[in-house]
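User: Run a structure prediction on this.
Assistant: Running it now.
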Amino acid sequence: MTELQKRIADKSNIYLAYLRTKNNLLNNELVLNQNIYYFESELESNLANIHKFLSCNEYKPWPFEKFDFILKYKKIEKNGIKYRPLVRLSFMDQVYTQCIFNVIMDELRNFLPKENLGVQLMPKNSKSVYKYWSTQYKEFVTRQRNNCSENSVYRTCFEYDIEQFFPSIDQDAIILDLVNLLRIEVNDIVYCWLKEIIKFYSKQNISDKTKNLYNLYLKSLGENIPKNTREDLGLPQGAIYSPFLASLYTRDIYPNIKSHFEKKGIVCDFFSYVDDGRLYISADENATTIKELITSSLVEISKKSKKNKVLKMNEEKTNDFLIVDHSSLSKLNSLATEISMANLSVNPNFDVDLDIVNTAIEKYEKLKEELDRIDNSISDSQSGEQKKLEKEITTLLKRRTSFFTRKISSNEKFYDVVGRIYNVVKSDEQNLASVNFDITTFNYYFNLKNLLESANKDEYKLSYLCHNLKNYIQSYISSYGKESFIFYIISTVKAIYEADFSLSLKELLEWIFSEYDEFNEFLLKFFMSFTSLKWHQAFHEKFVDKLNPISTFEEKALIYYFNYPYMLEESVDYLHEIKNRTKFSENIDKLESINVEIIPYDLEKSGEVSLKFIKNNEDYLLNLVTYWFDFFKKYNYIRPGFLILNNVFVFEEKKKIIIYDDTSDFYDAFVLKNYYLNYKEYFKKFFFDFFDCNESFLVNRKGVSLRFWEYRILSYLSNKSFNLEDFFEILKDSINGKELLNHDVDGNFERIRMIVDENLKTSKEKDIILLLHYYVHCSWKNGSKDLYFYTLHNEEHSLMLIRNYLEISKRIFNKISLTKNERFILFCACYLHDIGMLSSLNDEEKYKIQDTRILKFYDRFKKYISEENTSNKIEEILLKIYTLHEATEQLNEIIVRGDHGKRSSLDIQQGDELPLNDLEKRYVAIVSQNHMLDNSKVYGMEHRVEYRNTSIDIRKISIWLRLLDLTDVTKHRVTQEVFNKCFDHMGNDSKFHWIRHLSVDDVLFTSEFNKEEDTLTLKIKILYNYLPPEEKIDKKCSKECKYCYKEVDGVYTPKKCNDDIKGFCDLRKYYLRFANWFDAEVESINQYCSIHNNKFKIYLAYKLNEKTQRENFRIVTNARKRKGYITATEFVRKYLIEKC
């Protein structure tokens, strides 16, 4: 047995092949989950059979099952349809194939061209074969935009696509290529396996039920299709190995092209995404020359083929253009960015308000108009730009559909979205940009799934969806025939079966079944692919008599789950990693650091010692966690049996932990420790059981609130992201610090957890925000020592700022948007920007005689406390003491309130207890201090800094914090009851601010897009329940009055006062203006956006709430004796006149 065969036959490799096949199946629409479930139901046996087959020294053919050949629409044209051929392979066959290609891919990974961004391998032993497509495609798009930017050195761009890429690859040539690269003999068993796999993709192996589709495909290619294409089908689209082989086959094109331009001293950038190539050069090169160069390189590669199969460019997708500032290309790139920003702006996991929906629709309509305008401006000679425009229009249509179905279809716009998408399309529209949805411009299957989920069991919505979908399907069937539409029928059936049962959906399926009755022989397996008992019950009788005799693995799986449908709803228990052992073969070294003993599972009932479950012994938890960590550190894995709560006991007499290891023999035999197991699920089950919690983990099953250290562990395990080493760090930190982290949690903890889980990048960042929430929660528990009557700036205030950020950011479509790194700094600052209010004045602050506030205080009281004014009367002495004490407290309040931005900055940077590194403290401190600075100091200078290998904009983060801080002005920050009790002891400034808060019901955010101005407006409306009367006061407007208010229909909007105004303020407008920093901040933001051409502005308005408005309200005075009251208007009138 050769070394290569040994690696292929290794059980560890076979298990990896199973994981990769399961995680990397292409064309999800065609995947029958029953096949995977059935394979997993006998996982150990199936993998053992593959191992036995691959371990034979003599070659024998693998019993491949015939594959299905299915057609998907690629492009709809006036003279017919261009198809994309797809292949359905048996799951068992794909696992076997991947066993071989795991090793081949790893052996040849250095030969794979790095320039092909669409085909890059993941590291060895990863469960994924290729790097995630969205990340790679994003790099592909970003690289294009950078090359077309103003600072780019490139002058010319050439785009091409290889026509019929996979079918054009010669099977014999790629086999020979592999033989040479692997240096194997022609009679080698690995050679025989590779040849068998690649050659299996042939006409004679197409399933009898889909040969008609193959003939339809040949017919669509035309009469002149070469004979060699009929005999050699190339590579199958749907096999995991195909992209790898295709990229390997064409690897030489990249060095050939690059060397050509390097010899001429021309800078070039050449890269591709699978078969979609981009060539950028720093010269005005003739397009014909470039085309001939690429063509000759493809021809050179095709010389490997003895059948004369030639790779050639697709003329329709080949174009060139000059990269110059005045061309339409720069406008197209700008629009492409706008399309991406619009699509990314709204989180589909939260409800989307109607104003956002309307704004999104208007925004997309504007983008269509812009594309239409560019289309009209491009001359006939600019064919390259015309083709580029067509691509951007296709991108717009795809992203618009995705946006509609994922992000706005869950509300009352559902009917509009369905009507827009499932609408019969005419392809002869006058302008390209006015083309609506046709089935090739969006992902039919995933968008249907989104709509079914959005309907949320609403029978009216489902009925409407089914009615439109039926008409949509009928229009395509009548235009292009039933046979050509089979792929979309399969997609429809699968999407519906994955939704909850509904009568409307049942009726639609019955219609589909009747329409496609003649194709039942092939479609039956898809029609019977039920995913729940309800769907099975609905159609069991219909199909029970149509079952074919069992012959293939796929048919066995189908019939098994048809006869035993309840098995579909039983989960696989930890992928066979946990099971009673038949032997205890592995010798686990004892870790000297911890007193833990591992014993075989079958010795559990020895009865020699009295053991207790660790669940009731919290003090041993740290020892267990330390053992897990040390074991992982030494072996780079943890045995699954160690992570089952019921396997872990405490032997108290010897202060020892006993772990019964029931890790399965299968785990050991197939060396599953080589792969990153789903530790998150193991730990989640362990700790949820340990803390006796269900999915709602604010309280345990006994109704007792969780302590923060417990909640922190469970919240980490409930978030989307997970890092094992970070989790161990959090476990140890939480258990060691449980005495400090022992306060009970409330609903706000879960609110912020859900927010950061959606909006922050890493699990560590999410944990940091939770720690800050706890820190602020504890710090503000008893309020501020020096600001008794200042509204609390605790974790509730922080949470409100973050929630308002989400409300605003989702409405502005990434205008003045923040990156995830910037968002993290902002969220930290939301918690810490007011922390300086909590610490008392230090000696430096108390005795800073340069401070005019202290000097004024000193001048006022130095004579007051002098000896000659001293009286012997107790009442007079007490009065002086009380007066001095009250004045001292007011001085403290003035200093702390006025300097709290700077004080917070110092406390943050010196806060050793904060869960931030020094750089993060510095940036959060700057942002926190900026929230109290003058507008000119914040907006006047750009401040970009380096953070995590990228740059972040401190100014932009600061602008966001300042805006958010101004939005938390409602009555929910104060209570009338506390105001009544404390009124007599408050300073007048605090009284005014409390009245201001009590008079505001809510702050409303809406957005509006103006197509004419191409401007997005965020509307902020402050809703009052009380405003003073519009009575004139003796306050003449002067230059110090920067803003007044215009009233239209009860809505007050700020306007700048003119110098020539000589009128008098009325009480209501002066009340709105006084100590109102909101107007000036909004003006600064609008100026900032105007300078940076953001096409965005904020509209601010104040309005009385018609439902709750009141003419006045009372404030109790001398509350303890209940002697009287004062009205809000009385106080406001007196206070504002004094301030005049």
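The chain has a mean pLDDT of 84.
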